[in-house]
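Sequence only, no structure available. Ideas?
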Amino acid sequence: MRDLDLVVSVAHAGEVDPEASHSTVEMRAVIIQELVILFGLKNVRVKAPHIFVVGKFGQYSIHLGSGNVHQLGGTMIPVLAVPSQHRGRVFLPFVDEDPKTAEISSKVLLFADDENITDPQIRLYIMT
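Reply:
I predicted one. C-alpha cells follow.
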C-alpha cells in the first residue's frame, strides 16, 4: 500500500492529475460530445482521449485528461486557464463540477472559432 501512496504522491507532485482516471476521461468525452451538439459545432470530433478541432488557422488536439492543446503538425499551445476564484464562478449546466472539465470545454469553444481569438500570445502560436 505504501508503494501505491508513493506513486500517487509522485504523480501529483509531477502535476499529473490523479483524478483523471479512465472514467473521468470517458465522462468528459460525453460532456464534450453533448456540448458539440448543443453549439452545433461541425468542426469538432471527439475520439477519446483527444478532441480534434478543425479551425480556420489550423487543426488542434485537446487532451481530455490534461487539457493540453497541440496544433497538429505543430507545437503545443500554452493556454493558461484563470481559476474561477479570480474572475467569478462560471457555472456550466453539467453534473460534473470538475474545474478541468470547464477548462477543456472552454478550450474546445475557443479553438473551434480560432479566427476570433484575440489573445496575442495564442495568435502567435497558431499563426506560425
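The longest strand covers residues 50-54.
Hope that gets you unstuck.
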